[in-house]
TrEMBL record:
The gene is SDR39U1. Residues 253-300 form the DUF1731 domain. This is Epimerase family protein SDR39U1 isoform X1. It comes from Geotrypetes seraphini (Gaboon caecilian). It holds the Pfam family DUF1731. InterPro entries: DUF1731, Epimerase_deHydtase, NAD(P)-bd_dom_sf, SDR39U1.
């Protein structure tokens, strides 16, 4: 397949491109910066891929300003950038697919499990409702709505549409995990806040694996939760990371410090959790390489 990947220069994108190429696919990235094997968004912004959609068999969008960048203050301007970088790139690609002479076979976007309302007791799967209780859940709903191919186009008939709602992605070369390592290595790590909140996580190899599985399975459509099939709390995560590093992990990071660094709206993402089951992902036939937290962490720390 010829696969076009918006935001393919990022953490998930690089892992996905490697996997797709090793499975025999061709990958072209859409980036704000020009480079080999890339096309650029017009005006170095998330407006429209230059010259419309190039001939391709599948389109994936991973573009989005990094939400948890601790150096970036949580201002209205930054929130707008976080929203536009996702909603507009999805909208632009959905429209380009709708007006393509030969629409691609598959169109997939990655959003997040912040769609589901935080709870220590509720259990969510892909059919659960959500998307309407805070900034992040409304952002997911807006991203998924923007990605829908207009129903009156030919593409609506021929292009398979899928959404992967990702949990916290674990890997060494990106996401939030690398910045957590130092305190844990120094024996200063521990649970965040109460530690009782669920932490839906996924090894980056499995997130890339699920995306490739959707592209390669002709009958998979709709929402799939991109989380491991095990329920772990933040406390379980701290304990497993401490064990993998052979260090104590008992020092809790108090809620007020999280809020001081990230602001209370972003802080909620770390201090509150959701229990999410990847029911449709499992039913679709995807086999996880890392279904359990301990082996996933040991694998990531081994390279
Ligand atoms: N990592 C996680 O734990 C996690 C969890 C849940 C959901 N997700 C979602 O999965 C997707 C990929 O995540 P990731 O960790 O790979 O992110 P990432 O490493 O930050 O990469 C995202 C890519 O988006 C592009 N981008 C950034 N700001 C942009 C802007 N203002 N306009 C257009 N493009 C922009 C960048 O590409 P260029 O610089 O080349 O343009 C960047 O390489 C994101 O949408 C993210 O929200 C990630």
């Amino acid at each position: 397949m010829r696969v076009l990947v918006g935001g393919g220069t990022g953490f998930v994108g690089r892992n996905l491109a490697r996997l797709l190429k090793s499975n025999g696919h061709e990958v072209t990235v859409i980036s704000r910066k020009p480079g080999p094997g890339r096309i650029t968004w017009v005006r170095q912004k998330q407006e429209i891929p230059s010259k419309g959609l190039p001939p391709c068999d599948a389109v994936i969008n991973l573009a989005g300003e990094n939400i948890m960048n601790p150096l970036q203050r949580w201002t209205d301007k930054f929130k707008k950038e976080v929203t536009n970088s996702r909603v507009e790139t999805n909208r632009v690609l959905a429209r380009a697919i709708a007006s393509a002479e030969k629409p691609p076979e598959a169109w997939l976007v990655v959003t997040g499990i912040s769609f589901y309302a935080p709870s220590e007791t509720a259990e969510y799967d892909e059919d659960s409702t959500g998307g309407d209780f805070n900034f992040f859940s409304r952002l997911v709903r807006a991203c998924e709505a923007a990605a829908r191919i207009p129903g009156d186009s030919a593409a609506a008939e021929v292009t398979r549409e899928a959404v992967v709602r990702s949990g916290f992605v674990l890997g060494r070369e990106g996401g939030a995990f690398p910045s957590m390592l130092l305190p844990f290595r120094l024996g200063l790590g521990g649970p965040i806040g109460s530690g009782c909140q669920y932490l839906p996580w996924i090894h980056v190899a499995d997130l890339a694996g699920i995306i490739a599985h959707v592209l390669e399975s002709k009958n998979v459509t709709g929402i799939l939760n991109g989380v491991a099939p095990s329920f772990d709390t933040n406390k379980d995560f701290a304990r497993a990371l401490g064990a993998a590093l052979n260090r104590p992990a008992l020092l809790p990071l108090p809620a007020f410090m999280v809020n001081a660094v990230f602001g209370s709206e972003r802080g909620e993402m770390l201090l509150e959790g959701v229990k999410v089951l990847p029911r449709r992902t499992l039913e679709s036939g995807y086999r996880y390489a890392f279904p359990e937290l301990g082996p996933a962490l040991r694998d990531i720390l081994s390279y």
